[in-house]
Amino acid sequence: MTGSSVAHGRLERRLGVLDASAIGVGSMVGAGVFVVLAPAARAAGDLLLAAVLVAAALALANALSTAALASVHPTSGGAYAYGREELGAWPGFIAGWGFVTGKTASCAAMALALGAYLQPDAARLWASAAVVLVTAVNLLGVTRTAAAAKILVLPVLAVLVWIAVAALGADPSAAAAAAPQPGTPGDGPASGSMTGMLQAAGLLFFAYAGYARVATLGEEVRNPRRTIPLAVIAALTTTVALYLLLAIALSRFLGLPGLAASAAPIADAGRALGLPPTVVVAAACVAILGALLSLVAGVSRTLLAMAREGDVPSALARIASLRELLSPGTRTSMPAGSPSGRHPVPWAGQVAVGLLVLVLVQLGDLATVIGFSSFGVLVYYGVANLSAWRLGARRPWYCPRWVPALGAVACTVVAVLLPPASVLTMLGVFAAGLAYRWARLRRGRSSG
């Protein structure tokens, strides 16, 4: 089979529960845990733990809806595919556009965070190198992605749990020299308010949202009706427990003002606890690389689904193995267990995502793109919840109808309470996407 004949081919089912769970945890335990706790503390003040719990509850509702949908529709594309099946083409497009734009912003944020940890003065250079690296690894195939996720996530979890447990057992006075204090009023925590707490929950959602990465692999997991729900719930449960532990430990050890003012609270806590700075930096870089690895793959799968339906240029639906790309004319479909580089991947989408992230890395700002990401992904999950609500008798037992209803309302409320600049910018991005689809459909009717 040649490259021209596999433009709309199928992906192979080779991932089990452990593989899919590792990808989900690797997607969540990334840049978010290292950068988002401080801005969340500034917004929520003494309601930070409530914000963590609200974000977790929202993520749980979304996870159950996503798992229910993925078990009924085991295909690539996540809520884009689910929205098309259950609600229609336009809601599906809104979901897909929200995921692609929001997660592309998230990829840029993660790459910038990686560069800042490695060398702040050359952050954009390091970020660009990271994007090139993860794009190349993803081109080797999803088996390499799953294996890398499992290898990357374990040492990161070990470092984070050690810091959290050590901080809970340490004397908070030991952190006095390490915890920065607010230099301006805006650097300190706000007085607790419901609006601030919900805004913080929206920011924290940036850190939780990676569990949808499992659903976008619906075409590549074995026994998806069993594997996807188990993997989604396992990944989310692990991550929620870790984030709660870290929020409690850092709030106690650094103090709420110190946590709110810190640019790198985990690094500050680790230094005060006597952990070599290189250990925390290495853990941050490994975690961010793991999350970036999964996210680039996830966005490319949604682009693949959208391209198959004609909602983005059809060239983005091209599938081929790396071996075929390097040696045109070779076979694409290889037996399970073949060496990496021989499995078909949505290479056109992966390359397109990598190039777009490279552009955003040069132009973007870390704090702002977190807001962009949260808004886009909350819209995506709003459509997912509405789609799950429409499943009726097909909905699994673990997702009663009130769960997606509550999730849809919560996504809407939290999204509109994000920082106004993020909301307005992303509304413009959605308007541009809708205009593109309308124009394409109009051209199609005219030519017909």
CATH architectural type: Up-down Bundle
| Biggest beta-sheet profile | none
CATH topology: Amino acid/polyamine transporter I
The CATH superfamily is identified as: Amino acid/polyamine transporter I
CATH top level?
Mainly Alpha
Beta-strand residue percentage: under 5%
What ranges have pLDDT less than 50 throughout 5 or more consecutive residues?
Answer: 1-8, 331-340
Which word captures the global form? globular
Instruction: Kindly report how far apart the N and C termini lie.
Output: 32 Å
Structural category = mainly alpha
Count of folded domains? 1
Helix count, per DSSP? 19
Fraction of helical residues: over 70%
Number of strands: 0
User: What would the average pLDDT be, to the nearest integer?
Assistant: 81
Helix and strand pattern:
HHHHHHHHHHHHHHHHHHH
Q: State Rg.
A: 21 Å
